[in-house]
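Please go through this protein, sequence plus structure tokens, and consider how the sequence yields the tokens. Keep your notes short.
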Amino acid sequence: MALQATTYKVHLGLSDVDRGIYESVRMTVARHPSETEQRMTARILAYGLWYQERLAFGRGLSDVDEPALWHKSLDDRIEHWIEVGQPDAERLTWCSRRAERVSLLLYGNPRVWANKVLPAVAGLRNLNIAVLPQEALDALAIDLPRTIDWGVMITDGVLYISDADMQHELPLKWLQGER
């Protein structure tokens, strides 16, 4: 019998000062059985970072032909393809051919990944790559409750996440492009 996805109820009080977006977003997020808490947390943070009205979670780990998140036009063109983690250069090139814009929220050991992958994707003009600080991501992702209620403020390229009793500061480092 296959393992089932674990569902999380998420509320984001989003204040993106940099883009002038102020929204209260409620959603249900499915965590694939093989997905780590860090990856799911990175997907939620990517949702807040690149929030748009029609931004949606893709099937990601369940379907390699879909991203972690995407924004489609009304005529079903992929306007923004968003990956999280450490995809290889071949995957990023493949994604860049399918969407007008591709963004990656990188976490883990960025130095090893960047030395291997960045030279191969440097020519992709529609690719933006941001790095999450690993320690802050780990602190945010540990023991996630099934109901997540975060205040997310983005200003000057820094994500400030507040939950019931903690504040987390996640300064983004951009390796390529910008938000």
